[in-house]
Amino acid sequence: MMKKTFIKTKNVKRFVALMDELQKLPPNIPKLALVYGDHGLGKSQTIQWWADKNDSVYVRATQGMTSRWLLSEIAEELGEEPYWHTQETFELIENYLRQNPKIIIVDEIDYLIEKHTVETLRDLHDKTTCPIVLVGMGAADKKLARYPHLVDRLYKTLRFEQFNAEDIREIIENLTELNFTDDAINYLATRTNQFRQLVKLINKIEKLSETNKIDEIDEYTLKGLLNERQNLKALQKVG
Are 173 and 141 members of one domain? Predict the structure, then answer.
């Protein structure tokens, strides 16, 4: 039976280290950071997990988001009522954060880059000196390059990388009680590099191994389970 747990992969550990570092920086150091990477590597799950455990503001950008909309979301996350005028809401947030500094995390910043709304975050950073973490997709660093004043303030960029065999071992050990041999883990590493795909594969393997009464999975067995048409048809009936 697949276990439900949050898995601290290499990317997660690097993200936690970055957040710790940002919060310990002296006031005169710019505290903007960019976290980016391809789809399916667990960025959003990692950020939400960290935000839930720490006193922070988490906002997810959406298509067409204006400065007024973004600032309203931040104000509401702080428990404040946004004003109609953008400048008044900005000042409300600024005053709040000066008295109660918090780290601000904005996910899906690709939408804000398209609308130039991302510059509002730079202004907020400059006025409050609170750390702001921008989270985007694989090309977010290149898209941000058109905002040199913002890039100048980036303390660090962190790219979420593809899983290696060590990450996959960590994920397997946390998700299932099945025993996978080293060669099976290395084979899985060649099959997928996305977290969701890996979870689906492990779920599939669990069902097939239960049907076939298998406790240990080596590469040969794994290839048989994943490629045997009869077993895949049986899985489709189950799922």
Answer: no
Task: Tell me, yes or no, whether 169 lies in a domain.
Answer: yes
pLDDT tens sequence across 63-87: 999 999 999 999 999 999 999 999 9
**Residue 5 near residue 174 (C-beta atoms within 8 A):** yes
Pairing of strands 56-60, 32-36: unpaired
Nearest in space to 119 (alpha carbons), one of 158, 65, 45: 65
Pair 206, 226 in one domain: yes
Q: What CATH number is attached to the domain comprising 148?
A: 3.40.50.300
* CATH code of residue 194: 1.10.8
The two structure tokens encoding residue 144 = 């941000």
| Overall domain count for the chain | 2
pLDDT at 228 exceeding the cut of 60? no
Cβ atoms of 161 and 43 within 8 Å: the answer is no
pTM of the predicted structure, to 2 decimals: 0.80
Q: Which domain holds residue 187?
A: 165-238
Element (H, E) at 123: helix 118-128
Nearest 5°: phi and psi at 168?
-65, -35
Q: Crossing angle for the helix pair 67-77 and 118-128, nearest 10 degrees?
A: 50
* Residues 6 or more apart whose Cβ sits within 8 Å of residue 211: 231, 234, 238
Listed residue (178, 169, 171, 222) closest to 1, CA to CA? 178
